[in-house]
Amino acid sequence: MTNGVMLLLRLLVVAFATATIIYAWHWYMRDTAGIVIGALLAVPIAWRLLARPVVDLAHGGVAWLAARPAGARQAGRAFEFESVPVRVQTGEGGLRFRAEDVASATGLKGIPWQGRGYVDVATLEKWLGKRSEPVAQRFLAWVRKKK
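RESULT FIELD:
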């Protein structure tokens, strides 16, 4: 049986046990001592029945998250260059900047790598180093400061 089915079965057992305790208290004991005794007996049993499936489901969720591709869970971090957000990813190869964000932050036309997703620092330095516009030089200095 899968963990979800086991959890459902155990929840049904806990619900039945709780209903039985409430029924017994209501019809037979009718005092607060009966409910206290019933709760003292039912709570540890309920915790014992539910502990393992909850832990297994939590572990399954963590394993599922770890199995997802890195790009799906790490969309990057956003920094601001002159009040324009620029998404940046960190990885084994260093910093990578979102190409569309670089284009919108600098306002430069004819960016050769626009639409490629993320661009590394070396490509940015190579292309922006050739540009004479002041915004290109400011952006390049900002990139080097982030590095």
